[in-house]
Amino acid sequence: MHPDLDPQRSGLARLLRELPESAAAPYGYREFEQRALARAHQEHGHAGGRRLAVAAVLFLAALAVLLRLNGTPHTAPHGLGAAEVRGAPGLDPEDAPAPSAGTAERWLASLPSEPAMVRVGTRAAVMGLEDRIAQVDDLLTATGDAGSAPERLRALQQERSRLVGTLVQVRYAQTLANASP
Amino acid sequence: MSRLVEIAVSGELLARARAGEAAARQALYVALAPATHALIRRLVGQRALAEDLFQDTMMTFYERLPQFRQEAPVGAWLRQIAVSRCLMYLRSPWKRARLCLEPVDCGVAAEVAALITPGYSGELIDLERALASLAPTARAIVWMYEVEGYSHQEIAHAFGRSVSFSKSQLARAHLRLRTWLQPQEHPPSCTLI
């Protein structure tokens, strides 16, 4: 039913419109400006807080990576130079890194080796991870040359994939942090 | 018609305020702020919350004033900002969660008492009490439809709901308001609908 055709309803609407309104604003213009200024300061503080939160996340990520690296036994042989890992003898096609690992490495290669903004926490983590990957590469080459057991090769490949994955996460976090205002 | 929509502001004052003249901005505040606050208070009920949303609305108003093209009265434009701010609050998940956690009681009495002035008749006091007993969404819909002149389509659009949602909320709210206003021995409790 149309409201105007319902006497009870139109009476209610009339009463609602008759309700008196408060004649004053809750506070004056000066107070309004002061509150606006305070709010602007507050929002500025929130922006600073966001930057701080990003830095804290990065720091925690770096700390986690460092702790993880320190927990892994250091088994790199000395006296072995860097060698080409791909095509190392003794590697079964099944042991090849997963396709995502290749993508991750291409993405890593596309990043500048020296980021524009250097963060001490992540810098140490990235260097540590890159060192570990190089050591595993050496081990893989040496193991392949010596014709060792495929289980060891597989374990090394898995370790390398894990390290590359971690490196991707750290570099990605670094990229996000650099992009944030 | 809303009192905010009816407020006349000269084009010259608006132009000066748009140019950033402090005195013109203050004059605009004096002209528009009371009706803006009254509308927000009607839509959300609570005084402290209304002050917060009022501040937010007026800040947005001054921020966007340079873009105002005077295609509609400035009061109508400001009303749109205020209603949008209030509905954003009423629709927010945080607000809904708070409503679920808050105990339903007659705590609205203090808010009603703050609204009532010596000029109120007994009938209007009852109406204030009845309005305060409605759930925030139902109260906002009643006010938007009956006083601000919004259509069901406009309300549905503003709430992001269907037209039948607006119609059913309004019908239920009317029923409840009538129950409150009818003379009886035991008035209904403050249960939200």
Roughly what fraction of the amino acids of chain A lie in strands? under 5%
Q: What is the assembly state of the chains in this entry?
A: heterodimer
List low-pLDDT spans of chain B: none
Instruction: Tell me the count of domains of chain B.
Output: 2
Topology-level CATH name of the largest domain in chain B: Rna Polymerase Sigma Factor, Chain: A
Strand content of chain B: under 5%
- Which second-level CATH architecture of the largest domain in chain B applies? Orthogonal Bundle
Strand tally of chain B: 0
**What is the end-to-end distance of chain B?**
26 Å
Class derived from helix and strand content of chain B: mainly alpha
Find the structural class of chain A using helix and strand composition.
Answer: mainly alpha
Please count the helical segments of chain B.
Answer: 11
Number of helices in the DSSP assignment of chain A = 5
**CATH class (first level) name of the largest domain in chain B:** Mainly Alpha
- The helix/strand series of chain A, from N terminus to C terminus, equals HHHHH
Radius of gyration of chain B: 18 Å
Mean pLDDT of chain B: 83
Report on this model:
The complex is a heterodimer of chains A (181) and B (193). Chain A is an all-alpha fold. Chain A has one domain (26-68, 82-179). Chain A has five helices and no strands. Chain A starts with 6 loop residues before the first helix and ends with a helix. Helices cover 72% and strands 0% of the residues of chain B. The two termini of chain B are 26 Å apart. Chain A binds chain B through residues 3, 8-9, 12-13, 15-27, 29, 32, 35-36, 39, and chain B through 3, 25-26, 29-30, 33-38, 41, 50-51, 54-55, 58-59, 62, 115, 117, 119-120, 123-124, 127-128, 131, 142-143, 146-147, 174, 177-178, 181.
